[in-house]
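notes to self, project folder thing:

trying the whole complex as one job this time. last attempt i did each chain seperately and stitching them together was a nightmare. two parts in total, labels are on each line so i dont mix them up again. if this works i'll redo the older ones the same way
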Amino acid sequence: MTTIADLRRVLDQHADEVGVPQTVARTAGVHQRVAAVRRRRRAVAVGTLALVVLGGAAVAVVPRLGPAQPAAPTLLGRKAPTTMHALGFTYRTDGHGETFAGSGSFHLSESDQPRLFTWTTSPRSSVVLGLPDNTRWHSRESRFRDYVVVPAGESGTVQVSAPNGRVGIASYDLTGAPPPGYTKAGLTYRSDVAGTALLRAMVSDRGQVDLRGSFSVPDGAVAVAPVCSGLPADDVIHLAFDGSERTEVSGSQCDSSDFADAGSHVTSTFSAALRPGTEPGTAATMRMWVTHGDDDTQVVAAGSAPDLRMGLGVYGSLRSERVGGDDLPDRVEYLGHTWALRTIANGSTGGVHPSLPVSKVDRVIGIAWTNHGRIRVSFHAGTASGGGEFSGVGSGSIGDLWAAAGTTPTVTLTGGTGRYGIAAYERID
Amino acid sequence: MGPGDQAATAALDEFVAARSGALLRTAYLLTRDHALAEDLLQTALTKAWFAWRRIQGEPEPYVRKILVNTYASWWRRRWNGEQPTETLPEPTAVDTVGDAAEPSDLWTAMGRLPRRMRAVLVLRYYEDLTEAQTAEVLGCSVGTVKSQASKALAKLRIDPALAEPGEPGPGATDDEGDLR
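result (full assembly):
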């Protein structure tokens, strides 16, 4: 006979299976994730800006009073653009710019919105930006043809250098102009996220508790991006495709805040056929609805969740490459640009030190593995580093690793047995 | 990284060193997989970092709340473009790291419970939280905790791993007695 005491004993017994905490690896893993989240953030609230030159030589002031929009600065004899675009979003000049002879730095104050920076040089010169998170960004472009987006939440010193001349850098704020795609009541699904097209998006009216639609099944896997807010505590949102429930979320987790870029919140991927035998081009249904609790099959009464907002986007076809026994996407978005998978190095784990050849361009790195046993993954490329410790059986991956131009990305995998792969992404926009 | 970020980072590092072992045990009871438990814990700690300056008092209850709720509806997402799993992945094979000595049928049966029910049992019978405390962690009502616990125990009772021939049907639960 099984009793509550048995249940307590089994829980205690299995809790004791957890070994000695790997706090150093865990701390490093959390720091890496924090950095990754900060890069992604694109909050839409209006923040304050921006560009304050260190050393007191000059201060960029930010008069955003009244309806007058600031004019773009003229730097090194060239007028900066009034607006810039990154991943479909529109940024507008904040009126500030600064020039440096060879090199200099400025302080980037904390903001809850991303900032875009673009530059020009005289004479033509390469440019290196040292961002607050130690990312070193290299560019050969001038005349405001290149840019970098610093995510919301980043603050600190930005170093600027143009080894062969003077450099002028201008700063921009995110505007409320929606990117191409589907927008309703401030909730936006971009038409393209990391090279994957929006197949269908639907957004509820406030308080709507049942949302239905359909999309044309593509020839390949699809990704879904649900967001919600304002769900009552004990209610549950269900998500189903072609009548088959895939996932659910409870009230306490229904707190999406990034409605301006809901399409980047991909949470699930499904194979090409949601049902066996589904042909590309046929219609598949999609539905989000609310019930009281997990087991309730009845949709709650209209008006019972007056603050609820729900959105669901479907993207496809996803393209991926097999790397280290895992699937990595062939496109990613990073610092306001799109990057494509260009180089893969595969090998076997177990004290191996694989690396990719040095490159003349900046790269985003992903590492994937299929492993038995506890594995520790360490990544280094110049001053950039990352990694973590993982156990169990199966495949996994980490991304958001930065390999600046001229550095050699090196990976150390220790422990366990299996396969690994390193993928290098290069800018395509 | 500003001064506030540095302070939050230092405080989080100290917290991880002191308390993450206990949280990892809870994460393991929820996920039943060592790698997933570590992933869940790091996900929760990452979320906590961004709210660290707003935490009043001891951070552990706050982090535990994030951890349990992240588990209860884990919409996984990492770098923008990465393809997360369809649902919280179950272990692809038996994770033999530290398997219990006994072939625990009860442990097997718990693995078949829905996530929120499993979370209620872990909070009530491993963390020894009251029904009110469990409701606070899960962000639901005490009534929901009671019904989830009752349903969880009922599911365990009829699980093939635990069901005995001639077992009676569902009945009341008793914290000191049988799962019935």
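what i see at first glance: Residues 23-40 of chain A form the longest helix (18 residues).
need to look closer tmrw
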